[in-house]
Write a structure and sequence with these properties.
homodimer, 359 residues, alpha/beta, Isopropylmalate Dehydrogenase, ten-stranded mixed beta sheet, 12 helices, 42% helix, binds 3-isopropylmalic acid
């Protein structure tokens, strides 16, 4: 009997509803596979702000660090939108990422055959898209210093941020990306803005060097971020694995996931050098539909599967969950976000029950 | 008889071919409308590097500054890709923008009814898209200081860039954007990353203030850049006018133009406080097809029309050119980039001749 400590962070909006489904599914699979989960639920984001006045309580981070893995749902909402920066839910998320040291964020964007019509792209463009975006998550302009506000010689206010990467930061994310590409189609596209930014010039130099020295078998290409954004719309199938910095990764992974037309289906993982990984859906907290039982829990369930596979090494349990999701889609069950003619509309709770039946 | 000094910058790749067509068209319209053009051709980008060793010769910038308007084709090519940064064609372009002070870059993305099938988006998503991206062009991380390379306490190399905006820089681009939105559907979406970046927080504060004080009639909304990139793919018709900083504008305007499926059709204008404007196609120098007579000259021709309309105030001449382009498309003539079944394939030169006939 294997046992794992997992910290659950339901967060805000639809977070608690979809987390409930994921927990039920994990427990069912655990019973079947002889896995015990020691779940601890903690507050983060808006929920933590409301209860404790901070977006990331010390106790939450401590629990995460003591766990084998962390499963997050979603954070944020209109309610805290006008809070000062240090009291925003997002600040809690950034603190959590930094606190866990999860520098490597993997965001898959797959167009599932059952859902190809949900894409706004033409069928022939969308069909077969399978991209993995490897995003550096705890560096770059998100955390770079100096940052802040000041007044210049002419008496005008100005604000500034620093985009910065060091060679060890670039090297370690490059290695994760090359390893990832090797397990996929063996093609890696590094995205930067080296025609304008010095930080991109160093990025390109290091990724090129790591590729040449350590991964000569992986086909490496480079693309400017504006062109990459465009190529994702023009011909997404040209991409296998993409590696890029924090800001460009934020933008490109959102485009990639939208291509699939089913952002409610996509999980993500964030890994550190040796500590627990952080697993979460790509979508947000959807405050507009929170509490209405309309949310799609599948990205959360697939994030749990990703946690089992990459965070806990429980590949079999992950596969069971993934095929339950697939067979549920095959049977035609859809939440509102993916609904189309001829399918059966279900709510969040019912989708959970159908998944449990399918297990 | 009106007379204008115009500096022509054919640049690299397909630049000279498409510029030739635009010049013929302008001259034909000029004869008809009693406009004389005093054209001066100058070197920029790779062409200037080859001839003079610098990407922006002083003489080129001086000629531009003495003109009523500047018409650029495209710069860059593989040939100069491994040059050091200060000897890259792009550095010439950035120097030209800064030297002319053209802070406001307007990039329209329109899905033409004749070309809706060229988009990779489904017809019902693409049809009717008409977006104007107003991009700040001479500030932000493109020009921010400090920038460069250094070594940190642990002996590791690092590189850094600064994203910076001051209130006057934000205010002047915001005003251009509000004015632009007012002449369109009256809706402006300001794009930033205010949940992470201080510079975006100041951006949002100032755009909001200018809107409230000076443009209460324009409907203002705000969107994070990752979401905006995603929404452009999900439902581009929700956008009328977008305003954003230099880096985000680079990315979003490329996505917008790709949505139209006809990047070979899209012009852009860049305006300063009071000096000559800079007009250029959105597409690049396409070195792979340079010299093969395959280039689409229409974006260059429409850039000339934009120059006539916004740079020289010759609205009638602009309209004549625009309707010649439209009727040429109606007649079914297409260059390779836009070719589809049932249309007539033509080269760059022949497209020019057909346009002259249509005038
Ligand atoms: C909420 C926000 C801070 C976050 C980010 O920008 O990283 C989100 O967009 C994401 O991609 O996870
Ligand atoms: C060539 C490059 C420097 C330029 C930019 O990034 O501004 C281009 O991408 C553009 O959008 O005009």
């Amino acid at each position: 009997e294997r046992s794992y400590k997992v910290t659950l962070l339901p967060g805000d909006g639809i977070g608690p509803e979809i987390m409930r489904v994921a927990v039920d599914v994990m427990q069912a699979v655990g019973r079947r596979e002889g896995i015990t989960f020691d779940f601890t639920e903690k507050l983060v984001g808006g929920a933590a702000l409301d209860a404790l006045g901070v977006p990331l309580p010390d106790d939450t981070l401590a629990s995460c660090l003591e766990s084998n893995a962390v499963l997050l749902a979603a954070i944020g909402g209109y309610k805290w939108d006008s809070n000062p920066p240090h009291l925003k839910p997002e600040t809690g998320l950034l603190g959590l990422r930094a606190g866990l040291g999860v520098f490597a964020n993997l965001r898959p964007a797959v167009v599932l055959p059952q859902l190809v019509d949900a894409s706004t792209l033409k069928r022939e463009v969308a069909e077969g898209v399978d991209i993995m975006v490897v995003r550096e998550l705890i560096g770059g302009i998100y955390f770079g210093k100096p940052r802040g506000f000041d007044v210049n010689e002419t008496g005008d206010r100005f604000a500034f941020n620093t985009m910065v990467y060091s060679t060890p930061e670039i090297d370690r994310i490059a290695r994760v990306a090359f390893e990832t590409a090797r397990k996929r189609q063996g093609r890696l596209c590094s995205v930067d803005k080296a025609n304008v930014l010095q930080v991109s010039q160093l990025w390109r130099e290091r990724v090129t060097a790591i590729g040449k020295e350590e991964y000569p078998d992986v086909e490496l290409s480079h693309m400017y971020v504006d062109n990459a954004a465009m190529q994702l719309v023009r011909n997404p199938k040209q991409f296998d694995t993409i590696v890029t910095g924090n800001l460009f990764g934020d933008i490109l992974s959102d485009i990639s996931s939208m291509l699939s037309g089913s952002i409610g289906m996509l999980p993500s993982s964030s890994m550190s050098e040796s500590g627990p990984g952080l697993f979460e859906p790509i979508h947000g907290s959807a405050p507009d539909i929170a509490g209405t039982d309309k949310a799609n829990p599948l990205a959360q369930v697939l994030s749990a599967a990703m946690m089992l596979r990459y965070g806990l090494g429980e590949v079999k349990a992950a596969e069971i969950i993934e095929s339950a999701v697939s067979s549920t889609l095959d049977k035609g069950y859809r939440t509102g976000d993916l609904m189309s003619a001829g399918k059966t509309l279900v709510g969040c709770t019912q989708m959970g029950e159908i998944l449990l039946d399918a297990l």
